[in-house]
């Protein structure tokens, strides 16, 4: 079973975190996430990906773009572990990681820390996979998981 199939068949969760806010530019991003795909805007003028989503390329100000799929694999750049409750129903601690995807794009998302000792979370350079948390609200949100076998 492919990653996309597995992620789109995952059970629905009631998340303690807020849902994304839709604007004029980001609905396609969230629709692709719902399908278990991570797609970013790709400027066909300067041939670069960009994120966050926007109406023009931040590099060349071009308006010609496509939504291209990107890898669900990356390298862990940083981890922040929260010990303060910013969301009333969130269990503490929780972690947010920043990942460098193969296409040269950064992604920040919640890091799945279940069963992982704290010292393992700080392994900058660790191999990370992107999965999707399917929420009862109808959104699917990227979530990071340390890859099996470590690096």
User: Strands across the major sheet, in which order?
Assistant: 4-5-6-8-7
Shape: globular
Number of domains: 1
Largest sheet: 5 strands, mixed, barrel
> What is the level-2 CATH architecture name?
Beta Barrel
By CATH reckoning, the class would read: Mainly Beta
Series of H and E elements = HHEEEEEEHEE
Mean pLDDT: 89
Q: How many helix segments?
A: 3
What is Rg? 16 Å
Q: Measure the end-to-end span.
A: 23 Å
List keywords for this structure.
mainly beta; 3 helices; disordered N terminus; 12% helix; globular; single chain; five-stranded mixed barrel; 151 residues; OB fold (Dihydrolipoamide Acetyltransferase, E2P); three-stranded antiparallel beta sheet
Q: What does this entry look like structurally?
A:
Strands 4-5-6-8-7 form a five-stranded mixed beta barrel. The protein has a three-stranded antiparallel sheet with strand order 2-1-3, with helices on one face. The two termini are 23 Å apart. Helices cover 12% and strands 34% of the residues. It has one domain (3-146): Beta Barrel (OB fold (Dihydrolipoamide Acetyltransferase, E2P)), CATH 2.40.50. It is mostly beta strands and 151 residues long. It has helices at residues 3-8, 27-34, 118-121; strands spanning 39-43, 48-50, 65-69, 73-82, 94-101, 106-111, 127-134, 140-146.
Give a short synopsis of this structure:
With 151 residues, this protein is mainly beta.
